[in-house]
Amino acid sequence: APVVILQGHMDMVCEKEPETEHDFTKDPLDCYVEDGRIRARGTTLGGDDGIALAYCLALLESDQLVHPPLEAVFTTDEEIGLLGADFLDCSLLKGKTMINLDMEEEGSIYTGCAGGVTGISEIPVRRVKAEGMKISITIGNLTGGHSGSEIDKNRANANILMGRLLYELSREIPVGVEELSGGQKDNVIPRQCRAVCCIAPEDKEALEEFLKNACRTFRKEYAGSDENIEIQCTVLQELEEGEILHPSSQEKILFYLRNLPWGVQKMSGLMEGLVETSTNPGVVSLKKETFCVISGVRSSVLSQKEELSGRIQYLTEFLGGDYTETGKYPAWEYKPESPLRERMVSIFEKENGYAPRVGVIHAGLECGIFYNRIADLDCVSIGPDIYDIHTPKEALDIASANRVWEYLLKVLENLSLE
Fold first, then answer.
1. Distance, CA of 311 to CA of 385 (rounded, Å)
2. Euclidean distance between CA atoms 292 and 321, whole angstroms
3. Is the pLDDT of residue 418 over 80?
4. Are strands 31-34 and 37-40 parallel, antiparallel or unpaired?
5. Which of 3, 64, 203, 293 is the most exposed place for a label (fewest CB within 10 A)?
6. What is the pLDDT of residues 87-100, one digit of tens each?
7. Beta carbons within 10 angstroms of residue 372's beta carbon
8. With contact defined as beta carbons under 8 Å apart, do 368 and 362 qualify?
9. pTM of the model
10. pLDDT bracket for residue 379 (50, 70, 90)
């Protein structure tokens, strides 16, 4: 029978709760089962996409399962721009049929995805010496999530909220920003952002009242999707001399955060409910001389991806900064004709008694790279139910993983009958 490619990625998004002490470079995950789901205490699980590797290794290990010749492709660095797949020499592969196992929704067969790019803005800043009360302001306890598949769920972005909060606060009392940091990955909706600021001691009461009102406002605005937002304020030093941003530099970074495109920018006019174009300012960091923001830009339309990235570049350069792009990956275009898709839909209906959902996803998949490198490639993407990926709440449903495994075996057995 013709060779079938099975593909998944071996890297994971390393996110943890603020109070969790965990070194992802050497500490094992603390996995446990709860309510039929596998989780990891205080960290992401890596079901995205460890389950793909588990499926493939189980197939390769068995001498009893019926399947066509297989090529199992494990890639690295998928989560930071599909870099592993981009560096793969696809001429090594013989298969013209590919099943990607990087989906998180049982009962869905995906046959297209958005392309993307990581945009990095770096804006120079100046500092001045100042004396006053040093305080820490943290916006946290947000839901976060995958910046592709969950960008349309009206979840708050901690970095954007912090930009808004500091802007509005600076209009109420004199405040100088010393530190600013939020988020860890451009493909994760940031759940927390922290600023260290300098205020006059006599403004402490006004600050606390302002933050209480801001928290109420944010919770009301995100009622039903992110209503558990918290704002914490801690006094670090009663009277301290430090280096805060020069007023003009502070206005620059607040202007940037207030005008930076974020979230869903355009819905598809061809497929109902599909996000076409979006951006996620996933990481902000204020260094001694530079303010840096890393944004993930996605679109299923190449010109829209370039236009959105160009808007961020224009904003950055207007403020005297530099803009670079990295981790570009192509969209995976939907094919009206796909024998593999038709066969997998038929098998699913026969096994389950109802039709699967067939669609296109806004998140990036490595299929786009293989699709553009292997002539006449026919591919689909499937996977079991995995919840809250890219967050410490990530959970893989065990029963769903088993059902998808059985479905995959049926598909492979059918493909071996060529």
1. 36
2. 9
3. no
4. antiparallel
5. 64
6. 999 999 999 999 99
7. 16
8. no
9. 0.84
10. very high
The residues near 38 (Cβ < 8 Å, ≥ 6 apart) are: 31, 32, 45, 47, 395, 396, 398
Structure tokens at 150: 């969950």
For 83, residues 6+ apart whose C-beta sits below 8 A from its C-beta are 76, 77, 327
CB neighbourhood size of 202 (10 A):
10
Q: Which amino acid is at 413?
A: E
User: Cα(210)–Cα(239) distance, rounded to whole angstroms?
Assistant: 21
Structure tokens of 296? 């993930």
* Unique residue bearing structure tokens 């669609």: 359
Contact 393, 386 (CB under 8 A): no
273: alpha, beta or left? (left if phi > 0; alpha if psi -120 to 50): left
Tokens 């930009």 appear where? Answer: 163
Mean pLDDT value of segment 164-169: 98
The runs of H, that is alpha helices, within 43-153 are 47-61, 83-87
Query: Per residue in 8-25, pLDDT tens?
Result: 999 999 999 989 999 999
